[in-house]
């Protein structure tokens, strides 16, 4: 696809601040669009179809996978989560700058499907800071934190497969560096 240079994938281990960095980026640059994921989980109070997620049944989601209409997906806590191909292509065909926040495995699919996309791996300042962030959430058991840290170590080992790496030492500064990358890779003037 001709507009693949406008597709940016932000990935990294849990606790690196992917969502926080992209939220800060989009707050400063609302012209950059973020893809909306699809899920099989039920909507939470206040969530809206097409804004927070596209809500599908497990059967519908499986059919989308079978028809190659999902560019990346995973199964977590009994539900599917993923990005619909149409969600990406519609934005790229309109010439929009598109950011996807996805896990390391999903990023591998994007590299295969959209070889012109830029993949960015967010790193924590240190593994100690990553652990501090995960513990600071206060939402997980000790066992869950240990599991997430082990997964994070495996994900961190994938960083050299990405186009480039950014250290998230401070959210706004990292978002500004991400914007610089987007401008450079998409051929835009600041």
TrEMBL record:
- Give TM regions: none
Provide the residue positions that the database annotates as binding ATP. Answer: 12-19
Swiss-Prot/TrEMBL keywords: ATP-binding, Cytoplasm, Kinase, Nucleotide-binding, Transferase
Coiled coil region boundaries: none
Q: What is its main location?
A: cytoplasm
| EC number assigned by the record | 2.7.4.8
Q: Which InterPro entries match?
A: GK/Ca_channel_bsu, Guanylate_kin-like_dom, Guanylate_kinase, Guanylate_kinase_CS, P-loop_NTPase
NCBIfam families documented for this protein: guanyl_kin
What exactly does this protein do?
Essential for recycling GMP and indirectly, cGMP.
* Protein name listed in UniProt: Guanylate kinase
Organism the protein comes from: Faecalibacterium hominis (ex Afrizal et al. 2022)
């Amino acid at each position: 696809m001709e507009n693949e240079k406008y597709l940016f994938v932000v990935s990294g281990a849990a606790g690196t601040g992917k969502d926080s960095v992209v939220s800060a980026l989009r707050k400063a640059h609302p012209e950059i669009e973020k893809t909306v994921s699809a899920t099989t989980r039920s909507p939470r109070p206040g969530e809206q179809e097409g804004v927070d997620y596209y809500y599908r049944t497990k059967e519908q989601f499986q059919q989308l996978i079978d028809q190659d209409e999902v560019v990346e997906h995973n199964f977590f806590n009994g539900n599917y989560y993923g990005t619909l191909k149409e969600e990406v292509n519609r934005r790229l065909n309109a010439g929009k700058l598109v950011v996807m926040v996805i896990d390391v495995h999903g990023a591998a699919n994007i590299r295969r499907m959209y070889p012109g996309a830029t993949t960015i791996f967010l790193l924590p300042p240190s593994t100690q800071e990553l652990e501090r962030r995960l513990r600071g959430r206060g939402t997980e058991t000790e066992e869950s934190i240990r599991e997430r840290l082990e997964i994070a170590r495996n994900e961190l080992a994938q960083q050299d497969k990405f186009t480039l790496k950014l250290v998230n030492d401070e959210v706004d500064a990292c978002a500004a560096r991400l914007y610089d990358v987007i401008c450079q890779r998409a051929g835009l003037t600041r």
